């Protein structure tokens, strides 16, 4: 759900960028001639830019090349910069000093590919502006200096290349930091398992993928008589027992299984592509492994009770499937604990 909203927001923002480009180009074509007079070449350049921006707009709006829509919007915004650069004096224009910022902005808005594409476009434009620099300067009634133009072009290209690498480096560090914050936000600090937020995220994703041929099974686990451990030995020993049980449960799972701390002494395990019958077998293995060990320096014996359920085809939610597992768990407690109990429906 969150990913869908983010995609919709990105789609809307890219459309707004291209719309702004189109509006600006229309104003340039019809209003600029009333304010200043430049060579007719620029009218045709602006007309071509407007045609390209319009094509980009309808491509993005229709959903074609959806993967490249951010790149297209950034290229569209360059259609404004480059003609303006030419009109204002090419590489000798004060506007040229802002060009090295664009690969960094492209990296932040889009990514590494977008930064690379924008950098290549800018470097190509600078090379062309240098080759035809005398024409650009003549159109604007400036005194042309070949040495000055070549020198500025060289340093502009070097700065843009540096900006492309810096943008990539910054994006990598930003991604690492974001991933770290995301992991911390979804992780239980005591057991290093997923917390309830992480559980909800993964369970919802697995339920959306599940069907009649690949159901999702759920195990709700409770450590039996855990309150007695906290009362007799203290919460430090209780926390140590929780951590050790978590390690045993996680080590016994398959590669694609997902385990989370549900709260207190409870754990939830998501078993993708697993029918209830197979989940019962896995639950019994987990119950036996936990009961065969002792915990903390006091060598405490522990057992667990497990409630087992599986997803339904229609209108199943994270809340419903957890409630079914919870009812099975408490049924197992009522029957004496240290057992696996199956949900009724």
From TrEMBL:
Cofactors demanded by this protein: Mg(2+)
E.C. designation(s): 2.7.7.65
Protein name per the record: diguanylate cyclase
Highest taxon, organism lineage: Bacteria
Catalytic reactions of this protein: 2 GTP = 3',3'-c-di-GMP + 2 diphosphate
Domain GGDEF: 214-345
SMART domains in UniProt: GGDEF
Gene Ontology molecular function: any one: diguanylate cyclase activity
Gene3D superfamilies the record matches: 3.30.70.270
Source organism phylogeny: Bacteria, Pseudomonadati, Pseudomonadota, Gammaproteobacteria, Oceanospirillales
Top EC class for this record: transferase
